[in-house]
Design brief:
This protein has 424 residues and is α/β, with parallel strands linked by helices. 49% of the residues lie in helices and 13% in strands. A seven-stranded mixed beta sheet has the order 2-10-9-8-7-3-4. The longest helix is centred in the last third of the chain and has 32 residues. The mean pLDDT is 94.
Length: 424
């Protein structure tokens, strides 16, 4: 009887002890964070049972069947690497040497004085995000000027948290004109002229995210002179080289123009879009320096930043990139692959605009084909976005941005009909 009573007390006490332990948790004060805007769109899309549903929120390329696409050149490079039976040793802190060299050549050009004279410090980063983060930390530690990063309005949603997490302040300059769904060039120039001297300016090298609105070559030249006159440090984010126009050289125009004009730029590169290496997290971060001695000192400090962050980068993605860029036949195939992706997106833009006109829309949709790259700022209002999602199961972010890569031959007309229905 006594044994049974003891056992009963122990059973009854167990939940009380467990509850007390939970109540004293170290994490009781942790607040629920806001959901990620894009991942929230994807979650809602997954729950929708409409067979015609479309997810235009995610920034990843899809083929015309709506499926993830492994580039044939990437597959060929990967097979070549596997056949070499390479080891799995740690990469150097700054990453694979050949990868860094080839990344710099891809950005600046094979004949660039920056590469030939060894003026660049290029390290392998954890794709574009990690490269930007290392850049932010370097600026926080060593930039002698105004530690404020001026972003175009709007900019990629991750730019602000990355820079703030690095310990930098963030401000902005006019860029997108909602009235025309195009570039507010006059506003951008005016705002840049008012940025305090010795500040940092973030520039999207091509295929501006999220608007798809890029300056023309002549406008880039003018912006270069304005930035130079204000003694600003240009930090280029180049996540779409080749993916925007289909030409790696054309998409590098702004970066190369600024170099020709004497700027000492910072550069973040990503191979997620132009090689489809999303999950490999492969990118590069570059600082252009005055001379080799300065480059050596800068490199030493960047390595000091990297070591406690992630020690050294993963090798596989870097090996794929290097294999592609250094093997003539695979490189030639990759250039065709990247143009194929760019051309499909351009075709979807043309067909969407034509579909809206065929629906009888009275709006001017010229901006759909004027914009470039993966994303399009449609001009739809938050109310129209809510309606197109509710009535047609078309999912996108509230700012009206769509991923053109999510459109295919089988659903472009449905999208045109839906957009017309909510905007007429």
């Amino acid at each position: 009887m006594f044994s049974n009573a003891t056992s009963s007390l122990q059973r009854n006490a167990a939940p009380l002890l467990s509850s007390a332990a939970r109540n004293s948790s170290f994490w009781a004060g942790v607040e629920m964070g806001p959901p990620d805007a894009i991942l929230g769109v994807t979650e809602a899309f997954k729950k929708d049972s409409n067979p015609k549903k479309m997810n235009l929120g995610v920034g990843a390329y899809r083929d015309d069947n709506g499926q993830p696409f492994v580039l044939p050149s990437v597959h060929k490079a990967e097979m070549s690497i596997i056949n070499k039976s390479l080891n799995k040793e740690y990469a150097p802190i700054g990453g694979e040497g050949d990868f860094c060299k080839e990344s710099a050549k891809l950005a600046f050009g094979d004949d660039s004085v920056v590469v030939k004279d060894g003026l660049n410090v290029t390290i392998q980063g954890i794709s574009g995000t990690g490269s930007l983060r290392v850049g932010g930390a370097f600026l926080k530690n060593w930039f002698p000027g105004n530690k404020v990063v001026y972003l175009p309005k709007p900019s990629w949603g991750n730019h602000t948290p990355i820079m703030k997490h690095s310990g930098l302040d963030v401000a902005g300059y006019r860029y997108y004109d909602a009235a025309t769904c195009g570039l507010d060039f006059a506003g951008a120039v005016e705002d840049i002229k008012n940025i305090p001297e010795g500040s940092i300016i973030m520039l999207h090298a091509c295929a501006h995210n999220p608007t798809g609105v890029d300056p023309t070559p002549e406008q880039w030249k003018e912006l270069s002179q304005v930035v130079k006159a204000k003694k600003l440090l240009p930090f280029f984010d180049m996540a779409y080289q080749g993916f925007a126009s289909g030409s790696v050289d054309k998409d590098a125009f702004a970066v190369r123009q600024f170099i020709d004009d004497g700027h000492m730029i910072l550069l973040s590169q990503s191979y997620s879009k132009n090689m489809g290496l999303y999950g490999e997290r492969t990118g590069a971060f570059t600082v252009v320096c005055q001379d080799k001695d300065e480059a050596a000192r800068v490199e030493s400090q960047i390595k000091i930043i990297v070591r406690p962050l992630y020690s050294n980068p993963p090798r596989h993605g870097a090996r794929i990139v290097t294999e592609i860029l250094t093997t003539p036949d695979i490189r030639a195939e990759w250039l065709v692959d990247v143009k194929t992706m760019a051309d499909r997106i351009i075709t979807m833009r043309d067909r969407l605009k034509a579909g809206l006109e065929r629906e009888g829309s009275s709006h001017n949709w010229q901006h759909i084909t004027d914009q470039i790259g993966m994303f399009c700022f449609t001009g739809m209002t938050p109310q129209q976005v809510e309606k197109i999602t509710k009535d047609f199961s078309v999912y996108l972010t509230k700012d009206g941005r769509i991923s053109v890569a999510g459109i295919s031959s089988s659903n472009v007309d449905y999208l045109a009909h839906a957009m017309h229905a909510v905007t007429k």
